[in-house]
Amino acid sequence: FTDDTTDILEPGEDSKLAEALEEQINKMKTIQETRKSLPVYQYREDLLSSIRQHQVLIVVGETGSGKTTQLPQFLVEDGYTNDGKCVVCTQPRRVAATSVAARVADEMDVFLGKEVGYNIRFDDRTTPDRTILKYMTDGMLLREFLNDPQLSSYSAIMIDEAHERTLSTDILLGLLRGILQERKDLRLIISSATMNATKFSKFFFNCPIFNVPGRRFPVDIHYTLQPEGNYLNAAITTVFQIHTTQRLPGDILVFLTGQEEIESMQTKLVEILSKLDGTKFSDLMVVPIYANLPQEHQAKIFEPTPKNCRKVVLATNIAETSLTINGIKYVIDPGFVKEQSYSGGISKLVTVPCSRASVDQRAGRAGRLGPGKCFRLFTKWSYFNELEKVPKPEILRTKLNQVVLLLLSLGINDLLHFPMLDKPKTTQLSEALDNLYAIGALNSKGTITKVGQVMCDFPCEPEYAKVIYSSVFEENCKGVLSQIVTIISMLQESNSIFIPGLNREEKTKLFGSMMQSSDHMLYLWIYEQWEENGFSQKWCRDFKLQHKTMKRVLSIRQQLWKYCVKLHFISKDNQSSSNALENTSPAMLEAKIIKCFISGFPTNVARLSNQGYTNIKHGLSVTVHPSSVIFTRLKNEGKPMKFILYQSLMLTSKEFIRDCITFDKYEWLTETMPHLYK
Ligand code: ADP
Ligand code: MG
């Protein structure tokens, strides 16, 4: 028989093949050499024997010493996956989980998603029965406790970047501490920057701390003499000062607070560069890195800088410890970070000064290659007198609804005595309990309800799960599941649906009368139109939408839908996303949609008063964000709507509400949420 899978080699082709083979071998060689050159490599045996002896080990080491990429591989090589169990390493950030998994798959010469994979929310790239090493966000591992409270599929767990003290990491550590007794075979490695190591050790019954001495060259620290009024401009000036006075090679890393700032600085740098074109200066290559940056652009920061060129990496906090970028010699640090905080129903994403521990970490990024320099855009006095010592753990400044629900559903009712590195305030806990009661997740005794259990099962915030639940079961709003799942999927990605910089006039031209409705209804319209147009890229381009985001929305939608099927919200054969209600008018459909959202977000409602819109629960006045469809409507219409339901209230320059839908009838509140509004 003929075998058409066999390649028939043309003359000369075999030498090409050999070349390709050699290239591959060389690549593997360099990868293996790089691995051996990392500081942790020298401590491989010591580390492995400590792990054999101690159930819990804290590992402390400089960023870039190889903790994240190497330790899990050591465990695999040492046989921790031989009995069919997995090794898992958690990351606080999605980007870190995906990029490290890709790197490690490369190092182990396997396909990403097979032996080595990652699992982040709405994106699972692992293969059951085949994946032996998983990188996961800490939040995803936390969710695994729901199905498997002993985490029995893992032989070793590495909680990486533990010093970041995310909410999920803290809860994970508490839960893991609880299963160590029963899972004597389980190994737990907590890796951290220096700042919190002893605290972790104390928490884990004084377990040993393994210190991996890193390579670190001295870093010269420079401060400004006066506080900087505009740190973005100061950073730009500093970039050019370095570029024009310092010799190559030596890349620059600038720490900024978020995507907007990064994009704005990138634009300005590129503008100035175009004016410098043709001068004697060598090239400057600007590369951004932030959490929402599409994956294919992320790889750029790891590519070696071309000769005669200097790389300027504009990064968020992500480059502080999570990602190691080689070649950095100069760090520019304005000393700010964007921090989420939450109290009394208001989220704030505020730019706050970094802690001393953070700015020291940042400075350290300049000293990996050789002696480096760090330019702090604040004063020395401020460093010593104004900065906090360490960052405030997330558990003390965030909404606890979701974790409280998770703990309750795991049978942990005594929240006050649950072991935690830092205990949240009782007011935070009671606020979470109140919120959960309001949406029906708990009954008046504080016991988890059937609906509450369903909310736990969905891979989204309990509030959204409630909205989905209502669209199936609540008498006055059922029948709109498909639309609700679509809108919720769109809301997950709402800040990157339109191409950046799309203004209101353009939007009005593109979306016409939909700009007279609401964000929710516009999202629904967009998705349904896109679906009707075969999910086409061209259609997205025509409507100035980001096709990549829309594809993510599609995948989120499919996954949420799968859960709806699993929980019997919908029968398996009813997979179409067409309207289940035959004789429903658009107005009735919208009414049902709004009521579903009220059931999940009963207190995210603002009422029109003499002072404009004020929140119906805490009375705070709120402003519709200019990016919202409602903003356009309020500008155009004479008669504003009485109520606005919003998905987020974010204090930036003002208390802005985003992703809004409006309604006129107070009865909708009383009818949907009688226990709150009667
Ligand atoms: P640590 O966790 O101790 O900070 P890592 O294991 O993340 O260290 O990094 C070890 C080395 O691997 C670093 O030199 C880093 O540059 C390199 N590395 C990590 N990820 C990648 C990647 N995606 N591409 C190329 N090199 C990488
Ligand atoms: Mg790391």
From TrEMBL:
Localization per record: Nucleus
Class of the enzyme per the UniProt entry, highest EC level: hydrolase
One Gene Ontology biological process: ribonucleoprotein complex biogenesis
Residue ranges of domain Helicase C-terminal in the record: 238-411
EC number: 3.6.4.13
An annotated GO cellular component: U2-type catalytic step 1 spliceosome
Protein keywords: ATP-binding, Hydrolase, mRNA processing, mRNA splicing, Nucleotide-binding, Nucleus
Domain of life: Eukaryota
Reactions this protein catalyses: ATP + H2O = ADP + phosphate + H(+)
Sample GO molecular function, one term: hydrolase activity
Domain Helicase ATP-binding residues, every copy: 48-213
Designated name of the protein: RNA helicase
Lineage: Eukaryota, Fungi, Dikarya, Ascomycota, Saccharomycotina
Part of the whole protein covered: 203 to 880 of 880
